[in-house]
Amino acid sequence: MTMRRLSVAFEDDExxxxxxxxxxxxxxxxxxxxxKHQRNVYGLGLSFFHNADDAAEFTQDVFLQAFRKLEQFEGxxxxxxxxxxxxxxxAVNRKERVKECQSLAEGDYExxxxxxxxxxxxxxxxxxxxKAVREAVAALPDKYRICVDLYFFYDxxxxxxxxxxxxxxxxxxxxVFRAKKILREKLTGWILEGE
Length: 195
Known about the structure:
This protein folds into 2 domains: 1-102, RNA polymerase sigma factor, region 2, helix turn helix motif (Rna Polymerase Sigma Factor, Chain: A), CATH 1.10.1740.10; 104-195, Arc Repressor Mutant, subunit A (Orthogonal Bundle). Helix content is 73%, strand content 0%. The chain is built from 8 helices and no strands. Helix 2 (30-49) runs parallel beside helix 4, helix 4 crosses helix 7 and helix 6 crosses helix 8. Mean pLDDT is 78; it is low at 1-10 and 99-114.
């Protein structure tokens, strides 16, 4: 078993234990789950609403709903997957009401940090690359974009994306494949233009 799988298994056990303790009456422990998963839920909100205020409101709403539905968590999926499925449904419902959705806010790619050793030119190239990727992903059709977001940026498996979105597994694979093809074409054009 790889270190990543061991880490995920430990997190799953920790989350399941926290849920059990909360349901047994230690409701104050819910803040631990919130602190642990808040950044990713907020990021999911940003990928839908492209607005910090709306993403923050979305995050609060998702955690409130999750708390109310905590008894429904059966432990068949990871807690984070269950939480994301609540987030997905919340975002889709809001999107249908508001009819406004854009992909990936500015901060979502900040993990591609600029190294202190980078020259100004290298830093500039990295920033331009992040911007090009953000714009290319934002231009994808919604059904492709959300699968790409969850698969690449939130490290979700196809099975987890199926649980979160309700899309059939083969549809998810097809969406990711088509999105990668579109992104490759767009970003290859960008690279050639930038030379």
